[in-house]
Amino acid sequence: MSTLANCVDIVAMSDEALPVPLLPELADFWQSELMESLRLTVEAWSACVARVTQWEQEHLVDAPTPDDLKAHRKAVDRMILFGRLVSLSTSHKDFPDRRLAGMVRATLQAYEDKLLLWHDNTRTEAEREALIREVFSES
Fold first, then answer.
1. Distance of CA 52 to CAs 11, 23, 56, 60, 95, Å?
2. What residues make up the domain containing 35?
3. What pLDDT score was predicted for residue 8?
4. Would you tell me how many other CB atoms lie within 10 Å of the CB of residue 80?
5. Measured in whole angstroms, how far is the alpha carbon of residue 39 from the centre of its chain?
6. What local confidence, expressed as pLDDT, does residue 70 receive?
7. Percent of the chain, pLDDT > 70?
8. Which residues, other chains included, contact 1 with Cβ-Cβ below 8 Å and sequence gap of 6+?
9. Which residues neighbour 131 within 8 Å (Cβ) at sequence distance 6 or greater?
């Protein structure tokens, strides 16, 4: 049972035709499919951090407009929401892929840091500018 087509064939069988020994294989198949899909999605979501950073450099570093800040806030909020939803699964003690769980934690932290960097109103203008220079310096 290595393809989705095989699995669909098994699921389509009547109750009488579905032998009990296939149940663990069926569960393993779907877990494997879900884990692969989740891995690919999390890797793509994580890679977006670099694209968001590039957008910040182009739109927010020098003279951010209110519309740019609003668009940034909305996009980063959505990335954080996605990360928190995924984290509900990956932070569970029985989640099987610790590397993926770590990637979710690190990426979620990166997005949360972006929110603080650009939208934290508790810093002074001088503190924000110093932090921006530090983060975006061409070392």
1. 42, 43, 6, 11, 28
2. 4-135
3. 45
4. 18
5. 10
6. 95
7. 83
8. 7, 10, 22, 25, 26, 29
9. 117, 123
Domain count, the chain: 1
Tokens of 112: 């949360």
Helix axes 22-59, 4-12, angle to 10 degrees: 130
Residues 60-73 have a mean pLDDT of 93
Tell me the mean pLDDT in the region 37-64. 95
- pTM, whole model, 2 decimals? 0.72
Output b/e per residue, 37-60; b: 16+ Cβ within 10 A.
ebeeebeebbebbeebeeebeebb
What is the rounded CA–CA span in Å between residue 100 and residue 36?
A: 11
Q: What's the helix, strand, coil split of the chain in %, to 5? A: 80, 0, 20
Length of the chain: 139
Query: Would you state the structure tokens that stand for residue 68, as one six-digit string?
Result: 């740019």
More confidently predicted of 39 and 137: 39
